[in-house]
Specification:
371 residues, single chain, alpha/beta, 10 helices, 27% helix, Rossmann fold
């Protein structure tokens, strides 16, 4: 797109203004055109790769075949608009299949799985992404309790929080700081708010990096699950508040209490219900929630992450929605897609030479940050 724009408009004079990675291109004196930075923002693709406890084995024809720890699951995925690489016989070597019609899991018994403990498959088992541990439970919504495509966001969260804490510690050791913003204005533990927190992947990442976290979700069962994951990860004694509440109402109360956060994360659904039956519709409620969230950001915010799984929306829409934060704080924005990289075993599911596979798109993201 950049080439097209440069070819379409003759720029004889101009000034490029940059602030923490954002830029507005202002075309010369007497010009009739201003190009917004979002025109030039290049979307990026975040890839979750195969790890010890997770693998996207194959995908296609509206399905995906995944390994969570020792178990292999087969479930629908409408994004898989291509043909499978593996044969149907290889796909049948699984431990559980989600029946999209009946909205339930069928636990299988075959040559590959007959020696497995089926009770742990039904009741849940544990996997790890680096130092974060999750309790996996196949649900009636075809979910497993963790979204592997978020792993790169978790890495981003940890790195930014750790860097902030490191910088504060360095400032504390200086007798005479030349920094325009004294370290005393920062909390030693950045305060993080995770809205629509579900089973807590982003919460765990924040806690493990040293942050103080408020985790909000309207589902009691999701909060319970998130607590289990914190316990598994050895983070249950870290500073975290578990709040069962409607995200909008909670943020409005925080505004009244004049509570501030250094980082905010949200994963708004297209439709949902709060703990007391409150109805959420992204087309009606998202913008107001975002506006309210901007009121509880600290004077020195760290990042703001929005994930999207609602069909029909673009990450560019999130950029436009985050514009008021950019105007106030400067900073940078990254946008793009959340994906999982497929691996293909040439000689079947177990063993053989592994080569890089295709990318399965899972969602979109936009994240604002200021280093």
């Amino acid at each position: 797109m950049r080439k097209v724009l440069e070819q379409d408009f003759q720029m004889t004079a101009g000034v490029a203004l940059a602030t923490c990675g954002f830029f507005n291109l202002i075309v010369g004196i007497g010009t009739r055109l201003v190009l917004c930075y979002s025109f030039f923002m290049q979307p990026i693709i975040l890839k979750t790769k195969t790890s010890a406890d997770y693998e996207l084995i194959d995908s296609g024809n509206g399905e995906k075949l995944e390994r969570y720890g020792k178990y292999i699951l087969r479930r629908p995925d409408p994004q898989a608009l291509w043909n499978k690489n593996l044969s149907e016989d290889e796909w049948k070597n699984n431990d559980a299949v989600f029946d999209n019609g009946r909205k339930s899991w069928k636990f299988t018994q075959n040559d590959f799985t007959r020696n497995r403990d089926s009770s742990s498959l039904r009741d849940g088992w544990q996997i790890a992404f680096d130092d974060l541990k999750f309790n996996i439970k196949p649900t009636a919504f075809k979910h497993t309790g963790v979204f592997p495509e978020q792993s790169m966001n978790w890495k981003f969260i940890k790195e930014n929080i750790e860097n902030r804490i490191s910088n504060i510690e360095k400032e504390k050791m200086k007798k005479n700081s030349d920094n325009d913003i004294p370290y005393s204005t920062f909390n030693i533990r950045p305060k993080v708010l995770n809205l629509f927190g579900y089973t807590g992947g982003a919460t765990l990442a924040s806690l493990s990096a040293g942050a103080e976290v408020t985790h909000v979700d309207g589902s009691k069962s999701a909060i319970t699950w998130a607590k289990e994951n914190a316990e598994l990860s050895g983070l249950s004694t870290k500073p975290v508040r578990w709040i069962i509440d409607d995200a909008r109402k909670f943020v409005m109360r925080e505004i009244k209490r004049e509570v501030k956060y250094d980082a905010i994360m949200m994963d708004p659904p297209s439709f949902g219900r709060g703990g007391k039956g409150e109805i959420w519709k992204i087309e009606d409620d998202f913008l107001k929630l975002l506006e309210d969230c901007s009121k509880i950001l600290s004077d020195n915010p760290l990042f703001f992450i929005i994930n999207g799984y609602a069909s029909g929306y673009s990450s560019v829409a999130y950029v436009n929605a985050l514009e008021p934060i950019v105007k106030k704080f400067g900073g940078e924005i990254e946008i793009g897609e959340l994906t999982i990289e497929e691996t293909l075993h040439n000689s079947g599911i177990i063993g053989g030479k592994v080569k890089t596979g295709r990318l399965l798109p899972c969602g979109i993201f936009a994240r604002w940050f200021c280093k």
